[in-house]
Amino acid sequence: MAEAETKAELGTVEQALEALLTGVGPLESETLALEQSGGRVLARDQIARLDVPAFDNSAMDGYALNAVDAGQWLAVSQRVAAGRAPEPLMPGTCARIFTGAPMPPGADCVVMQERVERDGEQALIPAEIASGDSVRGRGRDVCRDAVLLDAGTRLDAAALGHLAGQGVVEVEVRRRPRVALLSTGDEVIDPGTPLAAGQLYNTNRPMLTELLQRFGAEVISRVSVPDDFAHTQAIIQQAAEDADVVISTGGVSVGEEDHVKAALETLGQLDLWRLAIRPGKPLALGRLPKEGRLPSSHGDVRFIGLPGNPVSSFVGAWLFLRPLMGALLGCPALDALPAITAKADFATQTGPRSHYMRVTLRFTPDGAVATAFADQNSGVLSSCVGADALAVIPANTHVANGDTITCLWIKGS
């Protein structure tokens, strides 16, 4: 049956994203101390309260003067240290000044100390010093009342420093999406328990937990689901009461022990099932109502049923979980993975499904070169460990060594 499938029978990634994201908007906001807001997403534009710098100041240790007085001996009329208010500069004099110190009124440039000859309280200033030299002007970095950071900005180290420079102590951020992570299959057990015949350890749970946290989510529960329809239905229903998003791994194929799709159709709405991609064809996207809400309301809980194979879950997380978290957080940076054009250092051919191959990237003077991991099977998680990107090979495509391909950058994204 798999060989006879055509692309038309299966959904595309674009159709899946449309089904997943339609009607999804940013969650409500909350206020946090600046020190606790690292990695969070701004809920509103942050307007600058102050000019940065707040005053004209010296960019180096040296001598402040009016540029018209350069090229001669000048009396050193004052000493200006950082954090001190200077006096107006007396005409025909200069001021000893230090990095970050306010410029004296009447001075418009600074010459570095290494270029100046001192003789007691006199300083020989070199010629050809221009107005503005070595002066950091007021508002050079930030102007008061300008947009400091846009809503939807993820607060990294530089953004936190930017806010601190404005004296900000609290910031309004989006609430993190609450995610319930379900693992299906009687054969899947947690690490730390001895393996019985036919069992395997749960690789998806820690992997997806880490990715979800990277994408800005809060994983509020991790539940194992037995291969039983009634239990599957009850656990999904309970998860929907507590979470904004319910994610399951496994149980979305067509086997007799795969109950997730049927449970979703019973409890809510199935929007899309099965994709024309490799790995990751078994995929269930839908919506679950919270009690008191209609299935079609904006308050629906989104459901994503990922395949059980770890590589399929890994790829599905980058393709679908990341943009969903971006929509819930109002964070455009999570909408799409950065695309890089590269030369293929391998050859491959696809059938009716697009292939998302795990590759490393090598950057050369002639551009990026993509090298594919030798074993691209959906159960070979080692292909994800060192991957820099996912090489997107469209359906029914032959790629020869040296051909240009598109890669989605995942390293650090």
Automatic annotation (TrEMBL):
Q: Which residues form the signal peptide?
A: none
On whether Magnesium is a keyword of this UniProt record, the answer is yes
Q: Which keywords accompany this UniProt record?
A: Magnesium, Metal-binding, Molybdenum, Molybdenum cofactor biosynthesis, Transferase
Give a GO molecular function annotation for the protein.
Answer: metal ion binding
Q: Does the keyword Ion transport apply?
A: no
- Gene Ontology biological process terms, A to Z: Mo-molybdopterin cofactor biosynthetic process
The protein's matches in InterPro entries, at most eight in alphabetical order, are given as: MoaB/Mog-like_dom_sf, MoaB/Mog_dom, MoCF_biosynth_CS, MoeA-like, MoeA_C_domain_IV, MoeA_C_domain_IV_sf, MoeA_linker/N, MoeA_linker/N_sf
NCBIfam families (UniProt xref)? Glp_gephyrin (NF045515), molyb_syn (TIGR00177)
Q: What function is annotated for this protein?
A: Catalyzes the insertion of molybdate into adenylated molybdopterin with the concomitant release of AMP.
Name recorded for this polypeptide: Molybdopterin molybdenumtransferase
The record lists the organism as: Vreelandella subglaciescola
Lineage here is:
Bacteria, Pseudomonadati, Pseudomonadota, Gammaproteobacteria, Oceanospirillales
